[in-house]
Amino acid sequence: MKKSFKYIALFFFIIIANSGCLKDSAITDVVTEENNGEKIIEYLESQGDFINSLQMPALDSAIDVHDHLDIYEVLDIRSSTQFAAGHIPRSKNIESANLMGAVKSISQNTIIIIVSQTGQAASYYTGLLRFAGFNNVYALRFGMVSWNPDFLGSWNSSTEPKEDFTNLAYERPAFTPLPAVTFDNSVSGIKEKILSRIQLLMSLSFGDPATSSLSTNLAGLNVIYNRLDSTFTNTFIVCFGFDGLYIWGPNGQLDIPGHPPRAVFYMQFNGYVSDLRSTSYLQTIPSSKDIVVYSKYGHSSAFVVAYLRMLGYNVKSLLFGAGWKEDLPQAYLENYAYDKGN
């Protein structure tokens, strides 16, 4: 059902959170079932609940890496061709499937930067490594695009408002069971089983900047859009971030549509409220549908995709985020030297 966006409700939630109730009390309508998805959530929340913390998203800027390159270990997950065309000095080219082993061999006192072309693929793999307990791992914000203008052509977004978009708010669906998750029975113990699942998800290819099984774009959404009922075929769209991202159009204009039709807003942790907690609205994300998540620039959504994939959801990240109104910020773009060759 459509309705105007309720900032009063958000204020009410913040008051509750400040009193300590929201974070400590489970919502009674949550569907609970004894399955592996539930075990994954319990384990990750007991280990710091990264996805619902102020550490999320774990990003470092090009200027930080450049100015302190001697203390960073830079792991570049792009193809060998992309790496040879230009890479950060002292960086190592490595396939995503081999990241876990590489990170294990590096001291946890060393800051590790994962680099991809636009930073979105790096965010996905960094999220998985964070879930595995490597709190010294960060993704390079905007990837090689932020390092030098020679890579700027990889960023593909448009600030033009899209046809059929809206600024009406849509309610979260009813709570549903978590997806079924199968563990590798060759390993024992919940930590080992989760690490095995993370390794499996590390082997999947996250398109950056091209689409893949883990990423899509507006063109991909347009293909499945049904103008008769303003829905996307068997697809649920999540807007993940802060409230202004959802309701406002470009430049904060309320008279310009701000999001795709039927998209539903989920609050990123703001110090008080987080909609992806198990005690909040996580299970209103329908397990029976394909999920597409978008955030401001595509970094946070890639982290969320890593989390929801852990839980068994069939989910993709919308590349370049809300590119129809959040253009690439010039303040993050540098002009640093880079090396060529392997």
Question: What does this 3D model show about the protein?
Answer:
The chain has 342 residues and is an alpha/beta fold. It has two domains: 2-48 and 157-318, no CATH class; 59-148, Oxidized Rhodanese, domain 1 (3-Layer(aba) Sandwich). Helices cover 27% and strands 14% of the residues. It has helices at residues 7-18, 36-46, 62-67, 80-85, 99-104, 120-131, 143-147, 190-202, 218-223, 243-247, 299-310, and strands at 2-3, 59-60, 72-76, 92-93, 111-115, 137-140, 169-170, 215-216, 225-226, 231-232, 235-241, 264-267, 290-294, 315-318. The strands form four sheets. It has a five-stranded parallel β-sheet with strand order 2-6-5-3-4. It has a five-stranded parallel β-sheet with strand order 8-14-13-11-12. A two-stranded antiparallel sheet has the order 1-7. The longest helix is centred in the middle third of the chain and has 13 residues, at 190-202. It is globular and about 55 Å long.
Topology:
Elements: E1 2-3, H1 7-18, H2 36-46, E2 59-60, H3 62-67, E3 72-76, H4 80-85, E4 92-93, H5 99-104, E5 111-115, H6 120-131, E6 137-140, H7 143-147, E7 169-170, H8 190-202, E8 215-216, H9 218-223, E9 225-226, E10 231-232, E11 235-241, H10 243-247, E12 264-267, E13 290-294, H11 299-310, E14 315-318
Parallel strand pairs: 2-6, 3-4, 3-5, 5-6, 8-14, 11-12, 11-13, 13-14
Antiparallel strand pairs: 1-7, 9-10
Helix pairs in contact: 6-8, 6-11
